[in-house]
Amino acid sequence: MGPNAMHRKMSYSSPDNLRETAAPETGRRGRLCYQTIAAACLCLLVCANAMAQMEITGSWAARNHEFLTGDGLPVDFTGMPLNEEARIRALSYSESQLAMVERQCQGWPAFYLVQGPFGLKIWSDTDPVKGNVISYTIGAWEDRAPLTIWMDGRPHPSKYAEHTRAGFTTGTWEGNTLVAYTTHMKAGFLRKTGAPSSDEATMTTRYYRHGDILTVLGIIEDPIYLAEPWILSRSFQLSATPLSPIGPPCVTAYEGSVGETAPHYLPEKNPFIDEMTTKYGVPRDAATGKPETLYPEYRKKIAAGAGVK
Fold first, then answer.
1. What is the mean pLDDT of residues 289-306?
2. Contact (CB, 8 A) for 61 and 236
3. Alpha-carbon distance 12 to 199, whole Å?
């Protein structure tokens, strides 16, 4: 019996009927009191979860303590779990492709926000009535599109929906950690030196705040080109100087003819494949991103002081 029905029954009952129903009504009042307490506890739990959420909006400057771009040498796929198909494609890539007008402003996938040299400008859109956050937006840069993290529970679109540079991202709070999941990214590159990513790649990012430090952990999965998940992390520092929500515009320009075909290297013809081995003694297997080289056990396979495969 609901509270309204209970109120009507008590209003129309005679004193005799009230005495007869006193015991049942007492039981109902007890249940109602229990339900009220349970609802109050649930409300406190929800409020506690809301209070646990960290404030991540603001301007976050890049500290650049981590070197994640991996573009110092033409063949540098260290720390990447590339499968064989990805390795073949990566070694065929020539950075001279960036001189082609149609490729100069091609942009990078969403996970470039963990790799690029820029900071992050983050702001939120809030429901004007309820006050809850509808979405967070991470501002764009010259070659990276803005990333919107939807917090309103909407589902990801069909796998046949349009794929964009930024992809489609939803987020939830796990305690004071924002967890975001990105799908629907266009095919692109995992690293500027040519390691490819497919349009089936996904990214899970976790945003941790400790004081004025924001750490972003990215876990990239690609069933086409990665043998296992690739994990990146980067830290940013809260900046009193506002960062721009957009980067400088990308302007194409004629940089001379690159020939009749897109610059590339034929299989086994990349002239830079042993550059890391020659200069720094890094084994070729590590330089070309073989998964086993990510683990400490690989050191046992390397002869002391020898840069061999």
1. 82
2. yes
3. 69
Within a 10 A sphere around the Cβ of 174, how many other Cβ atoms?
Answer: 11
CA 28 – CA 9 distance, rounded (Å): 13
- How far apart CA 71 and CA 143 sit, in angstroms, is 15
Instruction: Please tell me the distance from the alpha carbon of residue 81 to that of residue 90, in angstroms, as a whole number.
Output: 12
**Cα gap 151→135, rounded to integer Å:** 5
Say whether pLDDT at 14 is over 60. Answer: no
Q: Quick one: how far is CA 217 from the chain centroid?
A: 7
Distance CA 98, CA 86 (A): 20
Whether the model clears a pTM of 0.85, i.e. scores above it, the answer is no
Question: 252-257 — which CB contacts under 8 Å span 24+ positions?
Answer: 252/101, 252/104, 252/105, 253/101, 253/104, 254/101, 255/99, 255/101, 255/104, 256/99
Average pLDDT over residues 184-201: 94
| Burial class, 191, CB count within 10 angstroms (exposed 0-12 / middle 13-18 / buried 19+) | buried
**For residue 168, which amino acid is it?**
F
C-alpha separations of 36 from 4, 29, 271 in Å: 15, 10, 74
Q: Which residues are within 8 A (CB) of 145 and not within 5 positions of it... i.e. 6 or more apart?
A: 107, 110, 164, 165, 166
Q: Give the Cβ contact number of residue 306 at 10 Å.
A: 9
Q: How many CB atoms lie within 10 A of CB 132?
A: 11
* Tokens linked to 180: 């975001």
pLDDT in tens, 233-292: 999 999 999 999 987 788 888 777 767 788 899 999 999 999 999 999 899 999 999 999
205 in Cβ contact with 190 (< 8 Å): no
What the block records as the tokens of 214 is 């924001």
- Distance between CA atoms of 1 and 32, rounded to whole angstroms? 10
